[in-house]
Amino acid sequence: MATTKSANTCKKLYVAATSQHVGKTTSTLGLLHALKSMGVNVGYSKPVGQQFIEVGPSRADKDALLFASSMEFELVPELHSPVILGKGATTAFLDNPTQFNFSNRILKSSKILEQKHSVVVYEGTGHPGVGSVVNLSNARVAQLLNAGLIMVVEAGIGNCIDRLDLCLSVFDQKQIPIVGVIVNKCLPNKIEKVQHYVGGVLKEDMLDNRVKGIIAGSLIDLKEVKEDFVNQLLVVSINRLKEAIKKLGQVGRIMEGNSSPLSGVLLTGNGDLDDDSLEYFKKHRVPVLRAKIDTYEAVIKIFNF
Fold first, then answer.
1. 17 vs 209, residue with greater confidence
2. How far is CA 115 from the centre of its chain?
3. How far apart are CA 262 and CA 283, in angstroms?
4. Is 261:231 a contact under the CB 8 Å cutoff?
């Protein structure tokens, strides 16, 4: 069972797990096969590995070998398993950290993989904290790769939600976008119950709204309002929000049923929502996302999707 927070297509996905043995590798393999069956040119890497095998003069994580065999690609340790934390690696790092270029290895391999594939799925290691001793926790690696997160957790209700809350906070601290959650190993007769309670906690209301067009808050022209002026994404600085909402209120009165043409709002800049804007969003159930970047950069990023 999977619950997603965003409908945006991610070019880089990082699959992590709340703990060992919850099915992260199996879930990652299923994700890769699903993408491949859809015709996606998908690549794989396990940036940080622990249990390794010898591949010629190099070493590779055992999961990388599994994926190479299953997905039928040639295993290149430097690309598909750039960092191995074998026996003695952590103490060697702590004794002399400047002698290790772990981050550079990961970035070098990711650059090559992302040039070769339209989507790259990165598999994490163990629980979110694994690798912290060498500054390569799962959250740090996902941040380094600028990848969206898919978290795998074992099914249940109370324990499942508790683990998710704890583990997702680690990634949230580093501002890693959470693309989805896979609730794994759920008994068939428990699926509906787990989906109801866990899904309810994870659900982000109205974030799957369709976007037909994009409007800037400073460019709303009442003269150009037509019948098909619906499902618009408003991108606006918080300093111009009140003025934009006032114009949208006028648009609503022009439209049938005094409705809102908005499917969502991307709010840029720092500051607090004014009461009138907040009331408008609540009345029309418009989801609002905040961005630390400016309006121009936000619009560019959106168009790049």
1. 17
2. 20
3. 12
4. yes
Residue 38: other Cβ atoms inside 10 A:
9
pLDDT for the residue numbered 73? 93
Q: Kindly report the pTM of this predicted structure.
A: 0.68
Is pLDDT of 113 > 50? yes
**Cα angle 42, 82, 305; round to 5:** 35
Check: CB of residue 34 under 8 Å from CB of residue 19.
no
Domain 2-202 in CATH 3.40.50.720? The answer is no
Q: Are residues 197 and 3 in contact, defined by beta-carbon separation less than 8 angstroms?
A: no
Q: Which two tokens stand for residue 261?
A: 């043409």
| CA angle centred on 246, ends 240 and 249, rounded to 5° | 140
With tokens 């990634």, the residue in question is 171
- Amino acid present at 132: S
SS3 state at 210: coil
Q: Where are the domains of the chain?
A: 2-202, 213-304
Rounded CA separation 163/6 (Å): 21
20-31 average pLDDT score: 93
pLDDT digits (tens, 9 = 90+) for 242-274: 888 888 887 767 666 667 888 899 999 888 888
User: Quick check: 188 pLDDT over 80?
Assistant: yes
Q: What is the mean pLDDT of residues 33-60?
A: 91
Q: How far is CA 97 from the centre of its chain?
A: 30
Domain 213-304 has CATH 3.40.1390.20: yes
125 touches 28 (CB < 8 A): no
Q: To which H or E segment does residue 189 belong?
A: none
Q: Which long-range contacts (CB under 8 A, 24 or more apart) does 241-248 make?
A: 241/217, 241/267, 241/273, 241/274, 241/277, 242/274, 242/276, 242/277, 243/217, 243/218, 244/217, 244/218, 244/220, 245/276, 245/277, 245/280, 246/276, 247/220, 247/222, 248/220, 248/280
